[in-house]
Amino acid sequence: MTTVGHIRNELLGLFRRNAKVNYSVASLQRALKLRDSADIKNMVTALNGLMKESFIHQNEQEQYSLGAPKAVIVGTFRGNDKGFGFVSVDDSTDPDVFIAPPNTKHAIDGDTVEINILHPAKPGDPRGADGEVTKVTGHKYTSLVGEFQPFSDKEARQTGFIGTVTSPEKKIHKYPIMVEDTGMHPQAGDMVMVEITHYPDNLHPASMTGMMSQNLGNKNDPGVDIMSIVMSNHIKSEFPPEVLAQAQNIPDHVLDSDRTGRRDITDQAVVTIDGDDSKDFDDAVTVWRLDNGNYHLGVHIADVSYYVRPGTPLDDEAYDRGTSTYLTDRVIPMLPFRLSNGICSLNPDVDRLAMSCDMEIDGQGHVVNHDIYPSIIRSHGRLTYNNVNKALDGDASALGDRQELLPMLQDMAQLHQILYKMRHERGAIDFEEHEAKIIVDDVGHPIDIVLRERGTSERMIESFMLAANETVAKHYYDAHLPFLYRVHEQPDKDSMKEFMDFLATFGIQIHNVKGKDVTPRMLQQVVTDVAGTPEEAMVNVKLLRSLQQARYSPDPLGHFGLAAKYYSHFTSPIRRYPDLVAHRMIREYAHSTSDDVKAKWKQVLPDIAVQTSTAERRSVDTERAVDDLKKAEYMEDKVGQEFDAVVSSVLSFGMFVELPNTVEGLVHISNMTDDYYQFVEQQMALVGAGSHRMYRIGQPVRVRLENVDVEQHNVDFVIVDPDQAPAANFDTSDIKKPQPRSNNSHGGKPSFGGRNHQGNGRGGNRHPRGGQKHGKQPFNQIHMKRK
């Protein structure tokens, strides 16, 4: 019998002489001429030892070869219509890895993949490395909604399938899903939900198979277009029977037993201020002046947690939904309407249970005293933003029979100015973005798009909610109790360096001590400095792209954009699960702060933070997709018309322009035929190689609507008069028409550079203006969302 040590040396010599050969166990047995079972057993022991010491490794075919196993690189595959793709690696600042068509291993857009680097990136080349997908480990699409087309009887017999479903999503539109016969037989043009059972492979590289689970109706039926998007994003639109049954059993009025342990403040002049069409009121406010000159601010929030108890069907459903979703013609609520519009809504002139946060605020906007407690309130008025704004502008009659509230509203406006000044002085970054409301008719067709105006009342309520959210977060941090925070972290250093380099091209400097983190105040000063200048739009967009995404966390990581050390979501429990959880913790901590209670919350909060952050992003994506659909539909009959627009984003494949009504569309670089345009990334500009005409963010342009694809949510424009474009105001000597170049050895890699590859630039009407990696939301769009 040969010893393990002797066999080990023989194996190592064999591998070193044949470094590129993969050996099976049988081939190694033959190479070493081992026949005895004991020798073969010792060979396996020696192989395991060599692998443990990283002299050799084993591949997926269980073959052995020389060298340590390659580090597994995992990322997200982003497919392109032309067959190639890119893989973005999480927590990596390197450019995305290019995957040529033969090397995708049939990955589809959004798949989680393992990759191998074939050709490392060349120094200074922004295009990144070339790689190959070695394994698809997870699929983004496990189900999808698409249009059904039936097979003929003959085709059904030949294929064993009843028809195909094609997704409207451009990234997977080319993969028809062959539908198995499960007893459902929709008609041609029906939109159906399909559960995917098989993905593209070597045998069927251009199709998938699936089983139908739901028929949403014909694509031309009213509302089916929106519900298709809702279902595609896995937003639950119907409540299970057990949830509705539990909601129905909750009384629609406050019982005497509900009043126990609550402070009765029904005598206070508490009011709700919301939009004209709001149906659920989860926050009410009151303000008065104190004898010492300070302000009393009371923020009273519907105590949803009293009715939605842990472990019940209502709570399980609310946890899954995470948030309400607001669409053009409907709301998909987190809670059944019996609660959200009924007992949990702070309707006027009826008693309601609340969680209250009273604050004493001095003339500098600092909270000098506060109290958080369960209460009973009675709204003294259902006021609207529009009417309060009119009253504050001098038209007291806008308040109708509530004109006695005007002095309090004026105090509120004064307090808002104090709070705003305080936030500004500490460095809160205040972006002002246009928000549009899409008006639809009875069948859901858009008939107008109007801008939402934000007056004093809207800003006032936002100031009060911010104050309460911050006060609650600081209270429980100071008490050393586990809590759920709304966090917006410090921007990463690479993003800030890139932003500062960008500012330098305009002669703008951030005065920062070397080695110190950038502060919100520094960035706020930049926003202030560029206000009203031609660079304002460019700088604001670039700054938004450089910031991180707001999310939920059990750790008090601060809110960078608000320049707040502690921040939570406390004020909207009807539509946000994190707020409901905050109320639940407040109630439990009022009774006990034992080690067992703290340990329980410390254990569950991380999962709640992840789930609610994910649910929020899903909801925002759905809302945006529906807006894009309806905006495209609104523009459909306007092809050929001309519009004034502003360049909203510039990318390698063209530029997006925005109309005054917030409709965005693409001017593709292939339609800019007056010159050969090149993308100058550092300047965020497209520059003509011959004329040196320039297009950059914030620049006004005149455009003509060229095409609308409602199904893909695409709106395409062309420039009407390119001669009106200004000449570049920076060095353009390096911008020349490219010389013809032969394809390189690995497939002619496209020069898209950087991250966020959009292929041909289409993925719906929306451009990657959030700029943050793959759909990241700017913090200010989602830290406060009042509907």
Automatic annotation (TrEMBL):
Give start-end of the signal peptide: none
Q: Which UniProt keywords apply?
A: Cytoplasm, Exonuclease, Hydrolase, Nuclease, RNA-binding
EC number, as in UniProt: 3.1.13.1
Superkingdom as given in the UniProt entry: Bacteria
Q: What is its main location?
A: cytoplasm
UniProt biased composition (Basic residues): 764-776
Keyword Cytoplasm set for record? yes
Instruction: State its location(s).
Output: Cytoplasm
Q: Which InterPro entries match?
A: CSD2 (IPR040476), NA-bd_OB-fold (IPR012340), RNase_B_OB_dom (IPR013223), RNase_II/R (IPR001900), RNase_II/R_CS (IPR022966), RNase_II/RNase_R (IPR004476), RNase_R (IPR011805), RNR_Ribonuclease (IPR050180)
Q: Name one GO molecular function term.
A: RNA binding
- GO CC term, one of those recorded: cytosol
As its record notes, the protein acts as a catalyst of: Exonucleolytic cleavage in the 3'- to 5'-direction to yield nucleoside 5'-phosphates
Family as reported in the entry's similarity comment:
Belongs to the RNR ribonuclease family. RNase R subfamily.
Q: What's its job?
A: 3'-5' exoribonuclease that releases 5'-nucleoside monophosphates and is involved in maturation of structured RNAs.
Q: What is this protein called?
A: Ribonuclease R
